[in-house]
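Hi team,

As requested, here is the filled-out complex form for the iron/sulfur cluster run. I kept the field names the same as last time so the parser does not choke. Let me know if anything looks off before we queue the next batch.

— J.
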Amino acid sequence: MLEISDLKVHFPLASGQVVRAVDGVTLTLTPGEVMGLVGESGSGKSTVGKAALRLVPATDGGIRIGNLDVLSARGKQMRDLRSRAQMVFQDPHSSLNPRMTIRRAVSEGLILNTSLRGRALRDKVAEMLEAMGLPAQFHERFPHELSGGQKQRVCIARALVLDPELLVLDEPTSALDVSVQAQILRVLRDLHKVRPEMTQLFISHNLAVIRFLCQSVAVMYLGRIVEAGPVARVFEAPAHPYTRALLSAVPVPEATRRPDRIRLEGDIPSPTALPPGCAFHTRCPIAEKGLCDVTAPPEVKLDDGRSVRCHLA
Ligand code: SF4
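And here is what came back:
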């Protein structure tokens, strides 16, 4: 359903440096798959999601959504792309036009991309908002009259009303209060039950959320995928030291904390100056001098469906 091959997204700076936000990402999502894309801030995960929908320009590589070649799409194909693939952003406050009622916000995509008008349009929008837990009394309200969680429900309704085949969700709960996050997570989990055919790429730094919602996971570090595979396998037996470090940082009660907890030292390096060899070697607790700082590890496929990039995995 979504095929990303050797995607590169580089941003040249006025200083002459180049930000290598995404530097050779390959991902395949089958129809109906819910994949989590996880990594620290600055790993490039949001840029992958935006590039997949052509919201940022790709520097190199290929992206296909079904039979649509995203990077060469023009005219009608671009309109197709906008209705076949939708994105929900992190911050619902800035995603909605403050001067539009929520009925109008959800109607817009239908007016631009379909021939639905009048009563049929109103009914479809009302049905979608109600399915998101926003009954009729909300439909003529403006965004400032809604809570953060209600605004994010409007954003999800706006994305779903076009019946997209692919939904990209970029940290959809992280700008919300903790008490509201659980409600939105339940909405998203139910979404997969109601629309099992819809493919979802769920971008998050939160491993607990990925485990709750996703079937597969890809772990990103400095613009590359370092480990990918079924959620159950990656979480049970992470093969890459970076995945192990992320998992061991998930808060758990002290009594159940594993003794082999890995603490990552320092910050993620700048994507304008990628370290040579394995990009993780500057922080990796088991890096081997003369190997990891010199040679980039190739991708290795494991028997259980995982892939990993580490010389010592
Ligand atoms: Fe660590 Fe070396 Fe593996 Fe990179 S290749 S993750 S530096 S052990």
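Two things worth flagging: The longest helix spans residues 178-194. The first strand starts at residue 2 and ends at 12.

Thanks,
J.
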